[in-house]
Amino acid sequence: IRGMMAAPPAKAKDEDTITMNNLDPRTLLNKPLTSPVTRIGGFPWRVRVDASICNNYLHVTLICDKSTESELWWCKGVTIITIFGGNPDTNRYYFDLASWDQKWTSFVA
């Protein structure tokens, strides 16, 4: 009898990049744009971008939503938001997200 072992599961990535290219603020006024899910540290992450109608702000929302996988969850992380083609500033934000907070973390760029 010969036994076969399955390959060990891939280690969850602790960091990754979610890139959204060619964002036109005029189209974001009508409908926000949401990135595909990127799994980082085993959590499903998305970025949502929309433009403000009343001023010249671009709103970036970081979403960690495990609600379809678990009733209680908690995410902790760091994000760096870089906007190319405009102000060259890079901003770093630290955050905690939890299912019981019922809120998302938004950043205004």
UniProtKB/TrEMBL annotation:
InterPro entries: MATH/TRAF_dom (IPR002083), TRAF-like (IPR008974)
The protein's name: MATH domain-containing protein
Source organism (scientific name): Pristionchus fissidentatus
